[in-house]
Amino acid sequence: MANRLSQIATRTGDAGTTGLGNNQRVPKNSLRIHAMGDVDELNSHIGLLLCEPMPDGVRILLVEVQHQLFNLGGELSIPGFELLKADAVLALDEALAHHNAALPRLQEFILPAGTRAASQAHICRTVARRAERAVVALGNEEALNDAPRQYLNRLSDLMFVLARVLNRMDGGDDVYWKSERLAQQNAAE
Q1: Helices 146-167 & 56-77 angle (0-180, nearest 10)
Q2: Spatial CA neighbour of 159 closest among 138, 130, 134
Q3: Would you state the pLDDT for residue 181?
Q4: Count of C-beta atoms within a 10 Å radius of residue 10
Q5: How many angstroms separate the Cα of 100 from the Cα of each of 36, 80, 174?
Q6: pLDDT in tens, 3-27
Q7: Can you list the positions of beta strands (E) in 21-161?
Q8: Does 187 or 152 have the greater pLDDT score?
Q9: Domains along the chain with CATH numbers
Q10: How confident is the model at residue 1 (pLDDT cuts 50, 70, 90)?
Q11: Closest CA to 156 of 51, 38, 53
């Protein structure tokens, strides 16, 4: 792995390229850099979510997610390297099962709304989906391990579930979409 950053303003990117962890220089608009940037943005949004009140178990889970996203970003920064392990994906599967078990079944689509924490979790969900699309695009061009794509897929699902958990934290509920079709159907019954 390349040396850790000792200074930030290196000016080496002024010509539109950036260095990967293996010292290779690539254009700043390459698919790999897009994927790394989306993962970094996701991690930043989770950091913002962590500023909100939440159950301790959710906080511990999200801090672990941040560490795993850093591993994912590191893996993306070094072509052919593996940092994100399959057990990280399994941990998300277990968290999904745990949190889903405590939630009522969805009867309708929900809006990305409610409490500020839940709304921020929905932002994390959408950024995770974008990061997943970027990793898929990169994987269509270069060989990648499966774990990064799978992790982002599970994480976006988990963020949806956690938004529901956070909306219920103080007795609240989901914000349901008011479907005109369903309203008409219910009125006709």
Answers
A1: 160
A2: 130
A3: 66
A4: 11
A5: 29, 35, 14
A6: 555 555 566 556 676 676 777 887 6
A7: 25-27
A8: 152
A9: 26-84+112-176 (1.20.1200.10)
A10: very low
A11: 38
Question: How far is the C-alpha of 28 from the C-alpha of 170, rounded, in Å?
Answer: 44
pTM recorded for the entire structure: 0.87
| Residue of 152, 163, 47, 161 whose CA lies nearest to 89 | 152
Sign of CA pseudo-dihedral 77, 68, 144, 134: negative
pLDDT digits (tens, 9 = 90+) for 95-117: 999 999 999 998 889 999 999 99
pLDDT digits (tens, 9 = 90+) for 49-72: 999 999 999 999 999 999 999 999
